[in-house]
Structure formats: C-alpha cells, structure tokens
Amino acid sequence: MPTKNIIRQLLLLRYKYISQKNFVYLLSVAVGLLTGIAAVTLKNFTYTIQSILEKGIVFSHNQLYFVLPVIGLFLVFVLTKYMFKNGITPSIPPFIKRAIPSLLYSLLRQKGLLSYKLIYHPLILAPLTVGFGGSVGLLGPAITSGSSLSSNLSRILHVDKKTRTLLIACATAAAVASMFKSPIAAIVLAVEVFSLDLTFASLLPLLIASISSVLTSYFFLGDELLFNFNLTEKFNPRDTAFYMILGLGTGIASIYFTKMYFAIYGFFDRFKTRFIKLLVGGIAIGIMLYFIPPLYGEGLSFTKDLFEGNYLHALGSNPFDKYTDNIWVVIMLLIGFTIFKAIAMTTTFAAGGVGGVIVPTMVMGSALGNVVAKIINNIGLGHQVSEANFTLIGMAGLIAGVIHAPLTAIFLIAEITGGYILFLPLMITVAISYMITKNYMEHTIYTKELAERGDLLTHDKDQSVLTMMHLDTVIENDFIPLHPEMSLGDMLKQGVSKSSRNLFPVVDGYQRLVGIILLDDIRTIMFDQSLYESTSVETFMHNPPDFIYYEKDTMKVVMKKFQDSEAWNLPVIKNGCYYGFVSKSKLLTAYRTELINFTS
C-alpha cells in the first residue's frame, strides 16, 4: 500500500478514536523519542571522531593538534558546498546565524515549517566541527535536528500551527533533557526561549517529551552523563558576599560575551567568500589552541577537571608549563581561557562551523567561577571558599546573563549536581547576573537580530500578537482613486455614485497619494450643480492624519499611529505610491482574532 494511503488511513483512525488532547500527548512521546535518538547519535558520532583523533593520530603527541580545527572546518565547507548545496539552514534568511534564532523566526514567519534537510545536516556537520576541535557545543544542533523532526512529523500528520509550535518546543526540551538528563531544566528552557504560556496544556506535553527523551538516552548510553558532579561541600552563609561578587563578575562577562559575539561576526562578514572565512578562522583558532589547549572542542573535560581540583590537568600542556607552580600564573591562564573561550567559539561559528552556544557558555562560566574562588582563597583574607561550588555556580551565572534564562540556569545546575544544596547561592548569583545584563542589553545573541527586524515573540502577549500579525491581511483596496484635476461632477459620477465607501484617495499620474477626500467634505455642496464644472477635486482634498509605510512600519507602529492620530482609516504607501487603506475596525478585529488564537 502506498505511503500516502497508509497515512490517510492512520489519520482517519485518529479522527475517529483519538481526541486532540491525547493525539498531542502521543506526538510528544514520539518527538521525545526521535529527538533523544538524534541527540544520542550526535554525541556518539562526535565522541567517535574525537577518540579516533586522540588514539590514532600523532598530532596530540607532537602538540600539533591545533591544526585539526582547520581540517574540520574544511570538511564542513566541502560538504556544505558540494553535498548540502542549499546550505546549513535552507529557507532561513542569511541574517539569522544560529539554531535557536532560526527556529524562532520559522515559528513566526514560516508557521514552524522546517526543511527536512535540517534533520540530518546538524548530525553530520556538528560532529565534524566539534570532533575536530571546534570550540562549540552540541546542544544547538540537537535542538535543530529534533525540531525539524517534529516539524516534518506534524506536517505529515496535518497538525495545525499552534500544535506544531508546541511540538518544536517539546523537541527543544527533549534535546536538553537527553543531553543533560535534566528534564525540569529542559521544560523551563523551552518555556523561557519560546515564550510559551506555562499552562497545563503546554506543560504536560513538554514533560512527556522530556521523560521520553531521557529514557531514550538511558537506554542507549546507560548512566553516562554529560556532566557528573557530586557535591561534597554545602553552602556557607558567610560566603554570601562572595557569591554576590561572582554574580557581578558573570554579569560583566555576559556582556563581554555578547559584544564579542557580534563584533567577531561583524569582522567576518567583511570577507566575501566562505573559503576566506574558513582560512582566517581556522588559522585564528589554531593560534589560540596552541597557547590555550583547553579551548579544543566543547571543553567538558576542562570543567570536570576544575570541579575536581585538577586545574593543571585542565590547563593541559602549554608554553607556560614551567610557571604553573605559581597559583597566580594559573589564575592568569584561567582568565585567559575565560576571555578567549568566547572568541574561539564565535570564530568557529563565523568560519563556517556548526554547533551550539549553551555548553561553551557553561564552560566559560565554570572557568570564571573557579578564578573568583582562587582569587578569594589566595589574596590573604583568611577565608576559604569552595572552588568546586564556585565553578558550578559560575556556569549558572553566565547562562543567566548570556541567554537571559535565569530559571533554566538555576534548575540545570541543581539537576546536574543531583540536588538543591546550592539553591540559595545559585539564586543570588543568577539574579545579580541577570539583572545586570538585562538592564544593559535588552536582547540576547538569540534574539537581537530578530528584535531589530520586528520578528521576535516575547512573553508580552500584546507585543507577540502584533508581531504575529501581517500588514497584508488588513489592507483594503476597494477604494476608488480620484485625480486632483477631476471636476466635482466627474467625482460624483465616477467616484461617489460607484463606491460604498465614504473615503476617496487622490493620486497623481504616477499613482502617488497627494491627498484624501471624505464624503463629509463635500456633503453640503454635492447637490449644487452650479459647482460641478467650476470646482475640482483639488479644492476639497486634504492631507490624511498619518501614513503607513508598507516597507518599514511594523504592526506595532501601525497600531501606535492609529492611537496617536485618532483616525479611522490611514493610507498605505508602498514604493512611494498609493497602495490601499487600513481601517481601525478591521485592524482591531484582526487583532482580537489573533489574540484568541494565541491564547486559546
């Protein structure tokens, strides 16, 4: 039986016997399972490449491993150009450079319909990038692959846009849950990133997808964890001030991280070809790796070594080995790592690599937290703090600052440490870091490009509804245009008598709007035949209260113009010419309809 007939039969059975609610629950299980498999495949492929390179190639023994990222980026370049000819993110505008922003854009402007190619592109390109030493993470590619799976599954099963959005959020939660085995943090991240209303209708599918994904991960990987930390020291209230200092430090570091991210992308955007970007980026990464070897790859082993106190092993073999018996040299090396992790990560992206932001952010935060603890312990205050605890909380502080997801940061660290012993210091550091960065910069590396173009959904329902509305849906074109030289008699014969409107645009020979006429403007003289030939349209026309510019005005701006002008109709100008009108009544009706769809 053909595949289409099988799907049709399944849909008929579904409409007969399965309610919409239960159907969404079943799809959540499927999305969790598929995303979990994608995440496991991604990790296994990456670690296989790393294992082969570590054991089978002499680069590491001769300290020539810094050339590997160039090879990895070149392989990604070749595959993208010759095998994946439509690029890494087909159908996504080029101004969007990362996985999560592309998903947010797709949900808003493309109804969540993602190319099926995004299922396997990240599973191949990200392991090549990270396995060969690119300083990025695997979570972003896992989210992209899982989201594409859920999008295409919903397309096959004729799922509506709202349910498709929920399923993509489920895929995001499932990817995080599979990677970290932290289902609660996964749910919170999906809510914070996709601006979902935390209702039972959305919470239960997210929970089901997370559980399904975690079980899949356990089935294939057993108890293996991306991070595995066993806390030995509890929170000491006397350390509160130092955790506040850490919050300040991670807040400043988050601002640096974000600014460096956009600055490096701006630098690479100057190069005209991807191959030149690859060469420049590969050489830059190689130089950084030669002096700071821990920048190689995701950096998870680096964070584990810091947590366990093996900072010399974390730093690896580097040109400053003979000085590392001095703790201040170690501190400076860790500061260097903190500074250059953001540079190495963004350079990997800008050079054409494929990966994620969250894990590198956590690794950078762990280094910063460890630095703060070492400084406190060695400046002669006579007070010792837990370097392991500061290492973990530094991770949370940077996550909260960089991606503006404070609850995700708190629950993620709490879950990967197996408890809530550090819940209070986590809240202190995260709150301070988030407040600093949120006050300094409204948007994150995920949302800045979207917000500048008016393509960002937020938890502000009014803003989100206006963002989702399209100007084309409220433009009316059934107005009869008049010309300035037209006589009053011709206007009545050719315009008023044939129109059901009480508003008439006046345009010149180039279709440029030169004014408008309301029926009220001529009501008192429209039956005076002596004026039919002696007066013209130009006599009665006047300027509209405001204009709507098709190319640049967002729906938020349109609504504001109606509010300020108190007009009932405003003309739309497209390419300098008259295009139609927007009426307040139609605008408010469309707004209410979209609001009901958004909140139901």
UniProtKB/TrEMBL annotation:
Subcellular location: Membrane
Organism: Winogradskyella marina
Protein name, UniProt field: Chloride channel protein
Alphabetical UniProt keywords: CBS domain, Chloride, Chloride channel, Ion channel, Ion transport, Membrane, Transmembrane, Transmembrane helix, Transport
Recorded superkingdom: Bacteria
Keyword Ligase part of the UniProt annotation: no
Keyword Transmembrane helix: yes
Transmembrane portions of the chain: 23-42, 62-84, 118-144, 164-191, 198-221, 241-268, 275-296, 327-344, 351-372, 392-413, 420-437
Annotated ranges, domain CBS: 474-534
Membrane-related topology note: Multi-pass membrane protein
Major localization class: membrane
InterPro entries according to UniProt: CBS_dom, CBS_dom_sf, Cl-channel_core, ClC, ClC-type_chloride_channel
